[in-house]
From TrEMBL:
MF GO annotations: hydrolase activity, acting on carbon-nitrogen (but not peptide) bonds, in linear amidines; metal ion binding; ureidoglycolate hydrolase activity
Keywords: Endoplasmic reticulum, Hydrolase, Manganese, Metal-binding, Purine metabolism, Signal
Keyword check for Cytoplasm: no
GO CC annotations, alphabetized: endoplasmic reticulum
Location(s) in or outside the cell: Endoplasmic reticulum
Cofactor(s) essential for the protein: Ni(2+); Co(2+); Mn(2+)
Record domain Peptidase M20 dimerisation: where: 271-368
Similarity comment: Belongs to the peptidase M20 family.
Species the sequence originates in: Zea mays
Protein name as catalogued: Ureidoglycolate hydrolase
Secretion signal span: 1-25
């Protein structure tokens, strides 16, 4: 999800790396057990603990973040890196280069999700994976997604420098197209990994705003696909034992409260809707009020109904937004003959969210009838289930933060990231 660079994102990002380094450095038996159990990072065989080299190369990491930011179609400090463009291909090459330098086994699936694997001493066990994305919406910041990929690679590098051998294999994943910029599909790579058949079907025919198909765009980036290859991206459920994603907060809470670490306990479930009304239109002067069926007013009324139904849920966790409201023909002296709304509704409780959607549907039908406009479309574009973080992973992160005396806050992620789809498809 898009975000501008800010102080909070840097804070969260640096603090996370400290957690990794000090958690492994701590020789407290309980901390060691916890981290070994959940992260698969056993201490070295001689039991001497980590060497003095065991620290994050924060300067090197910052340099990598800046280098990656230079692969951009807009001038610094902004970053624009859209799926399968030249800059995206350069960024992919850069990430694979680091993975190779670290001695990871690099693999790409059919749509370009990139995996760097460090084989553990018990490779039959499910791997622990971590990662995020490096595509960037136009004029975004340099940390969004990137910290979750380069941060993970630095963590691997750190463990390698310290001569650890993981029991479980560790994998860094760079997901394809977390941002919906080009094809209007967010978390495209991880969604497909989650085995969502409707997505595999729609990728066969989707085009961007230049009328370039997904398959042609992928081919131009070096991913020549046969249609059946899309199914090969689907994950097998026993492949991973855990997935962790480091991401900037993209909300104001941590920065406002001065807390460096947020531990995500649940990811709110997003749903998006498209609604169209159609009326007769007409001249703003010639058609008198009783004779009108104004599609614009129907949309306005529905926008207010969305707010009302969201507030009626009684939970602070229910949110709804009409982010797009378009009127046709869009002239001051013309009664709107068509209106188009796009609505985003989220909650950590799937039933509560779906109840809101049902009320929005009823309101749309009611408004259509009252105003004599046609409800020409009411379409649920996606209706993803929410995800809960596994308690054992949350406990491990909390434990590590406590060991380090770092302030943290358990919180709900109201933006969603690739983790939502890893939760759905990998376990
Ligand atoms: Zn992101």
């Amino acid at each position: 999800m898009p975000s501008k660079p800010n102080a909070a994102s840097r804070l969260v990002f640096l603090a996370f790396l400290l957690v990794i380094s000090a958690a492994a450095a701590n020789d407290d038996a309980a901390a060691r057990r916890t981290m070994e159990q959940f992260a698969g990072f056993p201490a070295s065989d001689d039991g001497e603990g980590p060497s003095s080299d065991f620290h994050v190369d924060s300067e090197g990491l910052q340099r990598q973040i800046d280098e990656l930011a230079s692969f951009s179609d807009s001038p610094a400090p902004s970053v624009t890196r859209v799926l399968y463009t030249d800059k995206d291909v350069q960024a992919r090459r850069y990430i694979k280069g680091i993975m190779n330098q670290l001695g990871l086994v690099v693999r790409e699936d059919a749509v370009g999700n990139i995996f760097g694997r460090w084989e553990g001493s018990e490779p039959g066990l499910g791997a622990v994976a971590t990662g995020s994305h490096v595509d960037a919406i136009p004029f975004s910041g340099k940390f969004d997604g990137v910290v979750g990929v380069l941060g993970a690679l630095e963590a691997i590098s750190l463990l390698k420098r310290s001569a650890f051998l993981p029991k479980r294999s560790l994998e860094v994943i760079m997901f394809t197209s977390e941002e919906p910029t080009r094809f209007g599909i967010s978390c495209l790579g991880s969604r497909l990994m989650a085995g969502i058949e409707e997505l595999a079907q729609s990728l066969r025919k989707v085009v961007d705003n230049q009328n370039v198909s997904f398959l042609d765009a992928a081919e131009s980036a070096g991913y020549k696909l046969n249609l059946e290859d899309l199914h090969s991206v689907f994950l097998k459920t026993d492949k991973y034992s855990a997935f962790i994603e480091l991401h900037i907060e993209q909300g104001p809470i941590l920065e406002k409260e001065g807390i460096p670490i947020g531990i995500v306990t649940a990811i709110a479930a997003p749903a998006s809707l498209k609604v169209d009304f159609e009326g007769n239109g007409g001249h703003a002067g010639a058609v008198l009020m009783p004779a009108r069926n104004d599609a614009g007013l129907a949309a306005a009324e529905l926008a207010l109904a969305v707010e009302k139904h969201v507030l009626e849920s009684g939970s602070i966790d229910t949110v709804g937004t009409v982010g797009i409201l378009q009127l046709h023909p869009g002239a001051i002296n013309s009664i709107p003959s068509k209106s188009h709304l796009e609505i985003d509704v989220r909650d950590i409780d799937e039933k509560r969210r779906n109840d809101v959607i049902e009320k929005i549907r009823q309101s749309a039908a009611h408004i259509s009838k009252n105003r004599g406009v046609e409800l020409s479309e009411f379409k649920i574009i996606n209706q993803d289930p929410p995800a809960l973080s596994d308690k054992s992973v949350v406990d491990a992160m909390e434990f590590a933060a406590k060991q380090l005396n770092l302030a943290y806050k358990k919180m709900i992620s109201r933006a969603y990231h690739d983790s939502l789809f890893m939760a759905r498809g990998a376990f």
